[in-house]
Design a protein that fits this description.
Helices cover 47% and strands 22% of the residues. Strand 2, helix 2 and strand 3 form a beta-alpha-beta unit. The two termini are 24 Å apart.
Length: 142
């Protein structure tokens, strides 16, 4: 039933706990775990043009580090992985990835870094409402 599982990560403090759930499900199902991160370009709207490239580079570095952490944990558990980084609105990019990659299940956290909490509506809520695949959300206390 679940052959392709998506774990979108923002590298927040509780992402490793969410990754544990995604890795466990992928391992149990012999599924491929897609580890995906989005550089949120909405942050660029308030930056001067001279700072955009520096901030983009920092955010891309953070995205790659978040992916590497999850991939390392998945490999230790013997779970096959695929990775990708995108730039844009996180919820939209996640939903697009679900469609484009034929994802069977999304496993994601319910709360991200502080800057995401200031955006109207949460990323996970938008994904739950619009994704064509089931979404398992993992809270901070899970």
């Amino acid at each position: 039933m679940y052959e392709t599982i998506l774990f979108p990560t923002d590298g927040s403090d509780h992402a490793s706990r969410v990754a544990e759930h995604a890795i466990d499900i992928a391992g149990t199902r012999d599924a491929t775990l897609h580890v995906f991160s989005v550089v949120d370009d909405r942050a660029f709207l308030v930056l001067g043009d001279d700072r955009v490239e520096e901030v983009r580079a920092d955010l891309e570095e953070n995205a790659l580090a978040a992916i590497d952490e999850a991939v390392t944990a998945a490999e230790k558990a013997g779970v096959e992985t695929a990775t990708d980084v995108d730039v844009g609105n996180p919820a939209e990019c996640i939903v697009d990835y679900v469609e484009n990659e034929g994802v069977d299940l999304v496993v994601m956290g319910t709360s991200g870094d502080d800057y995401e909490q200031n955006v109207v509506g949460s990323v996970s809520q938008r994904v739950v409402q619009t994704a064509s695949a089931p979404v398992l959300t993992v809270g901070l206390e899970s």
